[in-house]
Automatic annotation (TrEMBL):
Subcellular location: Cell membrane
Record's protein name: NADH-quinone oxidoreductase subunit J
UniProt topology in membrane: Multi-pass membrane protein
GO MF annotation: an example: NADH dehydrogenase (ubiquinone) activity
Assembly mode: Composed of 13 different subunits. Subunits NuoA, H, J, K, L, M, N constitute the membrane sector of the complex.
PANTHER family recorded: NADH-UBIQUINONE OXIDOREDUCTASE CHAIN 6
Cross-referenced InterPro entries: NADH_UbQ/plastoQ_OxRdtase_su6 (IPR001457), Nuo/plastoQ_OxRdtase_6_NuoJ (IPR042106)
Membrane-traversing stretches: 29-50, 57-81, 93-112, 133-158
Comp. bias (Basic and acidic residues): 178-187
EC id: 7.1.1.-
Catalysed reactions, semicolon-separated: a quinone + NADH + 5 H(+)(in) = a quinol + NAD(+) + 4 H(+)(out)
Keyword hit for Transmembrane helix: yes
Main localization (coarse): membrane
């Protein structure tokens, strides 16, 4: 289990550095998801199966859904089709794919070698996690929930269309197209 712990930790550090250094948000998101999966691997190798499952379900799953939700709300239309085709090139997927394969191999090795000496992997129950989260760490949990709420409010404000007096429209297009759309909406 120590082998799994160290490899997952290394992958988490490398992918987190890639998240910070990437300028393209989609590329950074791919590395962020691999980083979250690696953190889940760290939790699994330490015996915190519940925390590892929550890491995958809540963070990796919720971040993907939130990202897709924001992109859908922005409704960018046909202007980004070529950019999306560029994101589907194999060069983009090689790094995250290789790191995911490393995580898969490490987790299979860890599952097959459960009786390994070292980190014992004593299971932590969901009740123990709940008592810890809403006991001494209740302030951190509440701050995290407020941060997530703030992110949701920002996503809503990014995606909404501005009122008639404002110049900027999230839907985009030329000013003539925007005026035509507004007159159609009022009719």
């Amino acid at each position: 289990m120590e082998f799994a712990f160290y490899i997952c930790a290394l992958v988490a550090v490398l992918t987190t550095v890639r998240v910070i250094t990437h300028t393209n948000p989609v590329h950074a998101l791919l590395y962020l998801i691999i980083s979250l999966l690696a953190i889940a691997g760290v939790f699994f190798s330490l015996g915190a199966y519940f925390a590892g499952a929550l890491e995958i379900i809540v963070y990796a799953g919720a971040i993907m859904v939130l990202f897709v939700f924001v992109v859908m709300m922005l409704n960018l239309g046909n202007s980004v089709i070529e950019q999306e085709r560029g994101w589907l090139k194999p060069q983009l997927w090689i790094g995250p794919g290789l790191l995911s394969a490393v995580l898969l191999v490490v987790m299979v090795y860890a599952i097959l070698g459960v009786n390994d000496q070292g980190i014992d992997g004593t299971p932590v129950s969901a009740k123990e996690v709940g008592v810890a989260l809403f006991g001494p760490y209740v302030l951190a949990v509440e701050l995290a929930s407020m941060l997530l709420l703030a992110g949701l409010v920002v996503a809503f404000h990014l995606g909404r269309e501005e009122s008639a007096g404002d110049v900027v429209s999230v839907r985009g297009g030329s000013p003539a197209e925007q005026a035509k759309r507004k007159t159609e909406e009022h009719v």
